[in-house]
Write a structure and sequence with these properties.
By secondary structure, the protein is an alpha+beta fold. It is built from five helices and seven strands, in the order αβαββαβαβββα. The protein has a four-stranded mixed beta sheet with strand order 4-2-3-5. A hairpin with a 2-residue loop joins strand 2 and strand 3. The two termini are about 25 Å apart.
């Protein structure tokens, strides 16, 4: 397997927070990277979050939502659309399916779904497909 060291894990370590990295064998045929992660790690999908990059009237914003949920683009803003994959990858420094809300190349405004606070820990991408970082939701919010 590839290195477990990513910009996301470096950012978490630099912040001095407690976290655990979980690795699993990513299947490139998976329909949903987030649901694949939840299943591979044996976690409730409500506790595993995906990182989506949206274009809100020309400005990129990161939205962190449960993997089984759909993002309500209208709740983000009137003219909000999903950011083109290439732009999201270029700005965050991560590949689609492995975009982490932590350690992005350029700090973007970030919205974390309030349901994250219902859990002792949550899982988000650690910066590549097949790698998740588990951390307290308060730390996720503070780091983003």
């Amino acid at each position: 397997m590839a290195s477990r060291e990513t910009p996301a894990t470096r950012a978490a370590r630099a912040a001095g927070i407690e976290f655990t990295v979980h690795e699993y064998a990513h299947d490139p045929r998976a329909d949903s990277y987030g649901l694949e992660a939840a299943e591979a790690l044996g976690q409730d999908p409500a506790q595993v979050f995906k990182t989506l990059v949206v274009d809100a009237a020309g400005d990129l914003t990161v939205c962190v939502v449960p993997v089984a949920a759909q993002l309500d683009l209208g709740a983000v803003g009137k003219r909000t659309t999903m950011a083109p994959t290439q732009r999201a990858e270029r700005v965050t420094g991560y590949v689609a399916g492995g975009i982490s809300p932590l350690g992005q190349r350029k700090a973007l405004p970030t919205l974390v779904d309030e349901t994250a606070l219902e859990h002792q820990t949550v899982y988000v991408s650690a910066g590549r497909r097949g790698l998740e970082i588990e951390l307290a939701p308060g730390d996720l919010v503070a780091l983003t």
